[in-house]
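Troubleshooting: if your tokenizer reports a length mismatch, compare your output against this known-good record of 434 residues.
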Amino acid sequence: MINQRIKGAAAAFSAKAGGAGLVFLSNIMLARILGTSGTGVYFLSITIVSIGVTIASLGLNNAVLRFASIAYAQKKSATLAVLFRKSTALIIIAGGTIGIVFWLIIPILPFNMAKSGELQVVLPVMLIAIAPLSLIQIQGEFFKAMGKPGKSTVVQAVILPMFMVTGLAVFRWFGGASVHEVALLYTIAAITAVLFSGLMLLRDVPGIFREQCSFDTRMLLRTSLPLLWVASMNLIMGWTDILFLGIWTDSATVGVYGIATRTASLTGFILIAINSVITPQFAVLYNEKKLDELERVTQIGAMWMLLIALPVILFLLLFPKQLLHLFGTGFVQGAPFLRILVIGQLINVATGSVGYLLMMTGHERLMRNNVMLSALINLTGNFFLIPKYGAAGAALSTAFSLAFMNLFSFYLVYKKLNINTLGYLKGVIPCSRR
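Known-good structure output:
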């Protein structure tokens, strides 16, 4: 079991590191092709698409991971197949509906941007990607549930940026591209990625489109919809800053801040890579009432997250200007924002997989309430700070609310499950078990 976890962690980490590198490279290429203003329009469009993806996913990501992990552990391949088909159908219907609704409201979007006309040309193209992007996440959760975190990470974090880097390289070779052309590339890459990852899943589970059994769709939705609230509030946590900057500042400011926030999230690849290995075990261990082993897994995961992330965090704190200069001289002014955002990411990594732990052990409503409170803090902070302090206010609000959410999640895990994810810091926080 330990060797399997080590191999899984190594595969997931390698894939996620590669994916993070591809995303970082694509952001550099994007910034150099579009400049600060064009990058701002693109990032704002991505933000709106991400809202659509979150709603279209219906909270199924974590619900699927929970049910599929248990089904796989019990060797119920027919349950896996039916779960996949039902979740896929739900997402295709929801994705198409959300795309149409968003397309209808594009003309009334209240963004105060010099290139608002270009935004309205770009968005319709990118809205097509909502359903494919949602399906990519679900496909990755199935690989994760089957104990294949490396493939899960490739599906969720490598294939799409790989296609984007390839396309942007072609654009650079031919002298550049417009925001509209980059948006078209993104949509084509998303469609290609979902087809490619679907073939990977079909190869590993040949009967996924054939095997039959009964699975209660209402039970699936009863589990997923509370998680949709969690995902929606997480979306507010992650994207309120960009949306409010789009309303109150110009597209260049959005572009500079967007690069800063994506650079700060480089530490997130470590969290995602290790989570892809350990989170499927949460539901199984809790279901089997092996709480001591569950605590040990979470503590080891949190320790490795911090150890691996710390050098990256220190580099981002000490050399932000040098790093941002890679994107172009216009992006160097984002260094103060990057430092603030990285502090929030440090707390996010150090506390471990507390959010997943709550959701995988039947405490999704507690997590929902926590995220709602944190999102409200972020929303309020951005509303009051951005008009006065601009991007610096957005960074402060986002970092503070992220830190609050993770620290409160840690408290809830400690109180409800008697699990101390920071147990690796012996002497700092009392151990919960003897």
